[in-house]
Amino acid sequence: MNRYCFCLQVRPDRLDEYVDRHRNVWPDMQAALRDSGWHNYSLFLRDDGLLIGYVEAEDLDAAQKAMAATEVNTRWQSEMTEFFTGIDGRPPDESFLLLPEIFHLTALDS
């Protein structure tokens, strides 16, 4: 399983609403993510709006394409676009700035 980390910028004036929306991610959106190959997906948000995402997938590009083919993702991305800066009208899930992994500590096998 490959690990991916990305960042986006949430509008500082929309942070509370963005957090609220992610407290209640639609069940069909969660199912679509799982079915599309997204694993251990987490979002972290700094108080200035810097959003860091972490996800594991066999192939992120394939997982993103599978999500793009779902109706629920189209609806979700349409609603989420207004929360971000610097994405030039693209859906947030097509605007990730992937960060290179420079260190990883693996667990010791018992």
TrEMBL record:
Which protein, by its recorded name, is this?
A: L-rhamnose mutarotase
* Source domain of life: Bacteria
What biological-process terms (Gene Ontology) are attached?
Answer: rhamnose catabolic process
GO: which molecular function terms?
Answer: racemase and epimerase activity, acting on carbohydrates and derivatives
Q: Which Pfam families match?
A: rhaM
Q: What InterPro entries does its record include?
A: Dimeric_a/b-barrel, Rham/fucose_mutarotase
